[in-house]
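Standup notes, protein team

Yesterday: finished cleaning the Brevundimonas intermedia set.
Today: peptide-methionine (R)-S-oxide reductase structure.
Blockers: none.

Input for peptide-methionine (R)-S-oxide reductase:
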Amino acid sequence: MTQSLIVHRRGLLMGASALALSACSPEPSEAGEGQYATSPYRHISDADWRRRLGDASWRVMRHEGTERPYSSPLNDQHGRGTFVCKGCDLPLFRSQWKFDSHTGWPSFYDVIAANIGRKGDLAIGIPRTEYHCARCLGHQGHVFDDGPRPTGLRYCNNGVALKFVAA
């Protein structure tokens, strides 16, 4: 029996067994974990998050749900500014990085790297990379290798996990 390999964007190789383990426990974040490790946002109870965020955002951000495609008003947000985490207002994306991916979710080709964490995700049976706010650990979406230049990445974000702050 041969073991298939997955090529990570940065050239690392992960075997299927390592990938399966990553779905069970979060991988170390690539960015921001140390800086935000003592954040008070990480000590908010689930009930308090639900009160703060409302049901839709709470389901997505605290329980890794997904909003319905084409349901977010942020799909049509084309102004200059910054997209920030709805849970803690940490800046995640600049408006010039947004593009229409025709997927129904706000999509970006770049991210403020120090402000996100990543982990492997096998929830739907195929390997994906989930990303979350590095400060409050709120789930944002998944990153894919089918985005436009210059990065080739598509950060597919749930609109209910973001707020837009005009410049």
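Follow-up from PR in the comments: Residues 1-32 have pLDDT under 50 and may be disordered.
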